[in-house]
Design brief:
2 copies of one chain form a homodimer.
Chain A: H1 2-13, H2 17-25, H3 38-66, H4 71-99, H5 105-123, E1 127-129, E2 141-143, H6 145-164, E3 169-171, E4 176-178, H7 179-184, H8 187-190, E5 192-197, E6 204-206, H9 207-221, H10 227-239, H11 245-254, E7 270-273, E8 277-279, E9 287-290, H12 295-299, H13 302-308, E10 315-324, E11 339-349, E12 366-370, H14 372-376, E13 382-385, H15 386-391, H16 398-414, E14 421-425, E15 437-445, E16 448-457, H17 461-470, E17 476-493, H18 495-502, H19 506-514, H20 518-531, E18 533-538, E19 543-548, E20 552-566, E21 569-576, H21 577-588, E22 589-593, E23 600-604, E24 615-619, H22 624-639, E25 644-646, H23 653-661, E26 667-671, E27 676-681, E28 687-691, H24 692-703, H25 709-715, E29 718-719
Helix pairs in contact in A: 3-4, 9-10, 9-11, 18-19, 22-24
Subunit structure (chains A, B): Homodimer.
Keywords (chains A, B): Aminoacyl-tRNA synthetase, ATP-binding, Cytoplasm, Ligase, Nucleotide-binding, Protein biosynthesis, Transferase
InterPro entries (chains A, B): aa-tRNA-synt_IIb, aa-tRNA-synth_II, aa-tRNA-synth_II/BPL/LPL, Anticodon-bd, Anticodon-bd_dom_sf, Gly-tRNA_synthase/POLG2, GlyRS-like_core, tRNA-synt_gly
Chain lengths: 725, 725
């Protein structure tokens, strides 16, 4: 009975809603309810008033004309009308500016900025649309040489910052995953987006995207809509993720939305599973999928990993690898792709003790946080000390807080602008029913605030799901230093008596008795003791039966327990590496005038840890001796594992700097003598002079963070760059 | 005509045969024709003679009995019979030993050795059968924590040794690949294995595996087969890869091979495509596959990469990533899996100049090579200086030779035993028709000689295939310093005259004329000039036509050319990372007696560059002060990026060493005072004493190769280990 009702409630709480649960874990875009701006609302009302005043005054003018009134009188009325029209036009302009946000020009300049970044990225082969010579595939991108190096650097730093620092157990599981695993995790049934089809051409669209586009366009371009209508559209945008399949279909019908390409009518929405399906082995009988996340590979290995860790909690496992998501119609370039690299951590912890031994390392960090309450009240993100957020219970526990702090350090070390990074807490309706708390690291870029890391306390959900499906208990034990005495309720149905009384219904009655909770059982015990008999509702029979004293023994017994067995909670920081890299590209990009001032030069201001190439080596002029020196330095750099480029073409030094600034190369060694060389730093353009022998080791030291450029700058003679740049 | 006949011949040369082309590129097992051992042959003949002698003598005994001969006479005949039987039994024993190779016990000990390695690998979580709690999936394995670290180390070293050293352009392309790309590469049509099905249960088997198993088992276990039969079976094994689908089916029928599990009859063999198929996007109209190799991602990007390299040849591109192969029935554990990591290099080079600027770096290397000729003559691999192999033309060109040398250095630096590594040249029938030369780095392990790296000169095949299919020319240009005068053959069919003469067949005749090669055209020119008319076979019409002088103009014209446009050749070293790692596990594994001598302890003797954990830190006894020191050292190690483990459990130091030796940890720091500590090296068990401050930097230096243990040993005071181990 109890089991049955639990099943019902868990099944109900999984509806279309659960889509967003799963998809949010996979870094989908978050949409926050933004209350309608007061200014905008009053402008819409003023606009409607003016429109109605224009109609009234227009009627007045027409009446005067019909009545053949005197010309001065008619002219005066027309002047009034024109005056109102002018006022209306002015309000329209204000409204236009208001609806495009602080944006106004902002929207345009954001898009122009993005275009400049993307052009540079594509031209310098940071990335390439995959299979370009075959006209590409939407949502698939290659990293070209500098992009691939940035990615390798980000992953190496991730390993250093998380895996090595915390002694995490890194694993590497296949992408091909049998159905049973993803059935247990819920992905086979619930990892879907709602899709509509063009009824004539069969082209597919994401239903929520069409509705979103419709609302946004209406709000931005149709100034004639009423304040009420605008509020309604804004409400739809706010609850987009929460709409049921019927509500979504209803809205699409109500607004008369058609296929964007053909204007044909659309089908009703229906769920489309986002996993790439395949078949394992030749028989066609073993369905499999390309994993939608790396986490499941860790969960199914919990037992072995726990053993490997000496049967001790807490510990964390980690995995870096490809994940796949067969998007219906990918948009937003590098941010929404069909194949991407995830780096995921599963930190397993005793649910009764979520403290973290290194919590004190992060307690004093302070950065932008956007708690649930602030979002509901329409406030904005604010700077809160992490320790305060945890102690005030805004962040659920220390371990979750610790990882939020570590993620902050990770992203800012990579070069993410800390003013454009915030941690946003999931609203109650965004979170899975089992989750204890959930925060997203969101980075602002030209597309808005983008979820790049999810940090969730998923409680015991995943381990329990796999325990149930596989039959292998995924649990931890806490051995007590000395046995503990516990009182346990024991319900012992007397099967012989129950069999005599209820014959074929005996089994139902036994199950119902055993399923009683503590209070029900103690009430029954009391009633049996006082009255000897009690009416008892058996859910599976749908009726009351009469239970007598000899039919069940209910008692509380004291037992000695030597250990506690429990399912650990899991705290999961999950990193969308491609999204972090794209935001990093935008945050690192700037332009500056060329020396002649006749053009703007592009620069990627990557920190050395991320830079795809750490250093270039140029002979100042084409010259056998200088080239030899350049080669000697190059050899030392290779030996030290420093990626670099040697350029012995005769191009002018200014052009060479411009070329490498655009690749984000932080240091350049210029050979202008056989004994000493200069080292130039990209952003300051400052140069120092060092001996040939020192050059490689200095670049090595500033590249791997042993020294900063400031250290170098204060220790070596400066070199005037006037002649070269 | 030429085009047509070229199509025919290429299609013919792609038959079932082409399977092995593609599969060999993907690291399938190589099978070499081994001539039947002379001793074995004479034993089989002797055995057959004895068998027939037994029959003859048996008949004689029966005749004597039937003729009621005298008892002594019968007894004497029986003695002779028993004598022959004894001789036969002795020959059987010799033959048994001979057929199991030098093996005999060898086979058993190889399997026992493998079992010891695999047990240790599984117990210490180097790898785990994937989805184990769901009873796993054949051919899928996870790397657990130490295995994952070894893999990351191997890949990092690969990047340093190849990508950084040669300034290669590394790219990172998706696994999901649209059909058109793999159609062009030949995988959609030809990447197949032949499969047979159990006709009753539907279970699938690889046809060649069943035939191979049958032959091997017959040869090893059935001593009664004749020398001729044995030679036939050995021949079948030798040509297994070359059998057509009909021949393979015929042999299976002839030998009466049935399904191994059920003994049911088998279907005829038919091709099964080894790619995992999926569908891209929601429409179901865009078939895609999980890539079977990473190389195609590089080929389709050739144009952009060539541009990135300043339109200069040679250059190399590289990619590390997952590849997939839906094996029919995977065997041989970690060596034949359905998902694996490949690291591939595509070195693009002018086909007219395959020299390599760094060739001199490898010219003096000398290692085991196994050229085609030695294989054909039944000789074994021999030590040849690389320079000699190239200069004698055994290795086709310098660049191929350079990479063979670099692969040798790579594998031996990782810890592959150079006595169990050989470079085997492909036999003519193993190589694709377009390949110029092909060598496999084969490593000997308990499964035999395993192909781990393929190094092929694939000529212009891949780029041409994608040029043709995509319509995008994938070519390079060589600009001449001054224009060159070249003579070119011009064939100009006179369409008007041909139309009058051949009407609807005009097009076929024109194409056939244009398709003539230089010799054919010049012969026709001479014939037309002398006779005015010539018979000409038009393949597409299937008949001769009569060509007159006025129907075609054939001339040689001089032209000035400013550049040469050509399709680069590609030299492709392709590394099966998982196979290399497995062989490394076997080559690194050894056992040694414990101090008490009561048990054998396992050791993985990984070189520091590969070791999953570089160092452990132990306080000698449980003690607050020592633990503090251990933590300080641990912090310095983390800062230096050295993966290590700190163990403050109270276990005896000997047990701790044994535990970490089994993980291949090369160094152990034991804290036995607050001022100085000891560092112990795994294989020698030697210990030195150093100050607390020095400990981390010394381990750092010996771990990343700045120093060897020998350097350290001669520079620091030695510590007697008698008390601890």
């Amino acid at each position: 009975m109890r089991i049955f009702s639990a099943f019902i409630s868990s099944s109900a709480s999984f509806g279309h809603r659960s889509l967003s649960r799963l998809s949010l874990r996979l870094l989908s875009f978050s949409r926050i309810a933004i209350p309608m701006d007061a200014a905008e609302e009053s402008l819409r009302r003023a606009l409607a008033e003016k429109q109605s005043a224009i109609e009234t005054q227009g009627n007045a003018v027409r009446s005067l004309k019909a009545a053949k009134a005197a010309k001065p009188e008619i002219d005066a009325a027309i002047d009034v009308l024109n005056g109102i029209k002018l006022e209306k036009s002015s309000i329209e302009k204000q409204l236009e500016a208001a609806v495009s946000g602080n944006a106004g020009d902002g929207v345009l300049s954001r898009e122009a900025f993005r275009q400049a970044v993307v052009n540079t990225l594509e031209r310098r082969l940071f990335y390439i649309p995959s299979f370009k010579i075959y006209r590409g595939v939407a949502g698939l991108y290659d990293y070209g040489p500098p992009g691939c190096a940035v990615k390798a650097n980000v992953l190496a730093f991730w390993r250093q910052h998380f895996v090595l620092e915390e002694n995490m157990l890194e694993v590497d599981c296949p992408c091909v995953t049998p159905e049973v695993v993803l059935k247990a995790s819920g992905h086979v049934d619930k990892f879907t987006d709602l899709m509509v089809k063009d009824e004539k051409t069969g082209t597919c669209y994401r239903a929520d995207h069409l509705l979103k586009d419709f609302c946004n366009e209406k709000l931005e371009k149709d100034l004639s809509i009423s304040a009420e209508k605008a509020a309604e559209l804004k409400h739809v945008l706010a609850v987009l993720d929460d709409l049921s399949v019927e509500e979504l279909g209803g809205k699409i019908k109500e607004y008369g939305i058609t296929a964007p390409d053909s204007k044909n009518p659309l089908s009703d929405p229906y769920p489309f599973n986002l996993m790439f399906q395949t078949s394992i082995g030749p028989s066609g009988l073993s369905p499999g999928y390309m994993r939608p996340e790396t986490a499941q590979g860790i969960f199914v290995n919990f037992k072995d990993l726990y053993y490997y860790n000496g049967n001790k909690l807490p510990f964390a496992a980690a995995q870096i690898g490809q994940a796949f998501r067969n998007e219906i119609s990918p948009r937003q370039g590098l941010l929404r792709v069909r194949e991407f690299t995830l780096a995921e951590i599963e930190h397993f912890v005793d649910p009764e003790d979520k403290s973290h031994p290194k919590y004190s390392d992060v307690v004093n960090l302070e950065f932008l946080m956007f708690p649930r309450e602030e979002q509901m009240n329409g406030q904005s993100a604010k700077r809160i000390p992490l320790g305060e957020a945890v102690s005030r219970g805004i962040v659920n526990n220390q371990t979750l807080g610790y990882f939020i702090g570590r993620v902050y350090l990770f992203l800012t070390c990579l070069g993410i602008d800390k003013e454009r990074l915030r941690f946003r807490q999931h609203l109650a309706n965004e979170m899975a029913h089992y989750a204890a708390d959930c925060w997203d690291a969101e980075i602002e870029c030209s597309y808005g605030w983008i979820e790049c890391v999810g940090i969730a306390d998923r409680s015991a959900y995943d381990l329990r799901a796999h325990s149930e499906k596989s039959g292998v208990p995924l649990v931890a034990q806490e051995k007590f230093s000395q046995p503990k005495e516990v009182e346990k309720l024991v319900i012992a149905p007397v099967k012989k008596e129950l069999g005599l009384a209820f014959k074929g219904n005996q089994k139902n009655v036994v199950e119902a008795l055993e399923a009683m909770n503590e209070k029900e059982a103690l009430d029954m015990k009391a009633a049996l003791e006082s009255k000897g008999e009690v009416e008892f509702y058996v859910c599976t029979l749908g009726k009351n039966v009469s239970i007598k004293k000899n039919m069940v023994a209910i008692s509380k017994e004291k037992k000695k327990e030597h250990q506690r067995v429990f399912t650990p909670s899991v705290i999961e920081p999950s990193f969308g590496i491609g999204r972090i890299i794209y935001c990093l590209f935008e945050h690192s990009f700037y332009t500056r005038p060329s020396k002649a001032g006749d053009e703007q030069l592009n620069v990627f201001g990557f920190p050395p840890v991320v830079a795809p190439i750490k250093c270039t080596v140029f002979p100042l002029v084409q010259n056998q001796q200088y080239e030899e020196v350049a080669k000697v330095i190059s050899k030392s750099l290779t030996a030290a594992g420093i990626s670099h480029k040697i350029d012995i073409t005769g191009t002018s030094i200014g052009k060479r700097y411009a070329r490498t600034d655009e690749l984000g190369v932080p240091f350049a060694i210029t050979v202008d003598s056989t004994s000493s060389v200069t080292i130039r730093e990209r952003d300051s353009k400052d140069q120092i002079r060092v001996s040939v022998e020192e050059a490689a080791s200095i670049v090595n030291a500033v590249s791997d963070g042993q020294m900063t450029w400031e250290d170098v700058w204060s220790n070596f003679p400066h070199h005037s760059s006037a002649s070269t740049e």
